[in-house]
Design brief:
With 341 residues, this protein is an all-alpha fold. Helix content is 77%, strand content 0%. GO terms for molecular function: O-acetyltransferase activity.
Length: 341
């Protein structure tokens, strides 16, 4: 692959900490989407529904576009430093092997192999035509497929930018069932990241007023989403895939990026950046962790199943799981230093 432009290198250097912070937020909020192990009947109807709408439906589901953009943006540099075979084989080791291991764990724990067809087993591990045993790990499968196509996307962004953009946008909005990727949303935003990298000389960080405008629009989108919980007519207006794909997710993802840029130079941003060193392991493990937490919570006394405690437990579980994982790995690192591990 050809060398990256100086504009791309400068943008990557200036935004590296914001990218790491975005990764932390995206994976953490995304994990709330998969927190289904509690009985929602215990939740406070108003408080829980609003929190779920904001944290899971707004921030969590909009994290996938932002992570996809970041992945596409970074993969341009990844391919610039390696030949195609090395790039693909390295990504296979870092994406598909972990995905298979964690899917296999879930299958061993929860799958009834007696009634499983051969294709079910293949999909459970590799997500060839359907989501795998752990649904969120399909993201890694799609990233692997897009990795293989990255040189084509780079060529399209450089040589046929309009045609490539129109084709990818049409696939995203039409959402046909294709086996190249299981979710066309990831394809679209990954290619957006590639475009930003290839045309880095034409992009810049948003100004303070531009970020204020983005926050205002994102706030309006959030308020509309909350209002839809209590007004069915609003829910009908925004319930389609077109609004979700063309408005809600792109707007919220952009607002999340602006926020990451804002806090990157602050002390809080630096602490979040340091806390993110184990985010990939948290991404892999959170499904099984949440299942264990849910099973344990179900066995607690009824007095702990009230509306307030339930809602607080839902809110705290991902954060507590991430903190606990970091603590365990920190202690392990001190007992068994890297040279001894």
């Amino acid at each position: 692959m050809s060398a990256v432009s100086s504009a791309y290198s400068n943008a990557l250097g200036a935004g590296s900490q914001a990218l790491e912070i975005a990764r932390v937020f995206c994976i953490l909020f995304m994990s709330y989407v998969h927190l289904h192990f509690f009985d929602a009947g215990h939740a406070s109807p108003e408080a829980f529904l609003v929190m779920e709408a904001v944290i899971a439906d707004i921030l969590g589901r909009s994290s996938v576009p932002l992570l996809s953009v970041a992945s596409g943006f970074l993969m341009v540099r990844f391919f610039a430093r390696r030949d195609y075979k090395s790039a693909v084989s390295q990504r296979f080791r870092t994406l598909i092997i972990p995905m298979m291991i964690w899917n296999a764990l879930a299958m061993i724990l929860f799958m009834d192999f007696r009634d499983a067809a051969p294709l079910d087993l293949v999909n459970g591990l590799l997500a060839v035509t359907e989501p795998p045993a752990q649904l969120h790990l399909a993201f890694l499968r799609d990233l692997m497929a897009l990795t293989c196509l990255t040189p084509l996307f780079i060529y399209g962004a450089r040589r046929r930018p309009v045609v490539t953009a129109l084709i990818v946008a049409a696939v995203y909005l039409a959402q046909p069932k294709i086996w190249i990727v299981l979710r066309t949303q990831i394809l679209f935003f990954y290619v957006v990241g590639v475009y930003l990298a290839v045309h880095a000389d034409r992009i810049r960080f948003p100004t303070r007023w531009e970020k204020t405008g983005v926050y205002a629009v994102a706030g309006a989108v959030t308020l509309v989403q909350i209002a839809a919980l209590f007004e069915p007519r609003i829910g009908e207006l925004i319930g389609g895939a077109l609004y979700d794909n063309a408005v809600r997710r792109p707007v919220i993802a952009l607002a999340m990026w602006c926020f990451c840029v804002d806090i990157a130079p602050t002390a809080a941003g630096r602490r979040i950046h340091l806390a993110g060193k184990n985010m990939f392991l948290f991404f892999l493990a959170h499904g099984l962790i949440f299942h264990a937490v849910g099973a344990a919570y179900a066995r607690t006394p009824d007095v702990l199943h009230g509306q307030l405690i339930y809602t607080l437990a839902w809110l705290a579980t991902p954060v507590a799981a991430l903190i606990g994982l970091n603590l365990v790995l920190t202690v392990r690192g001190r007992i068994f230093p890297p040279e001894q591990a």
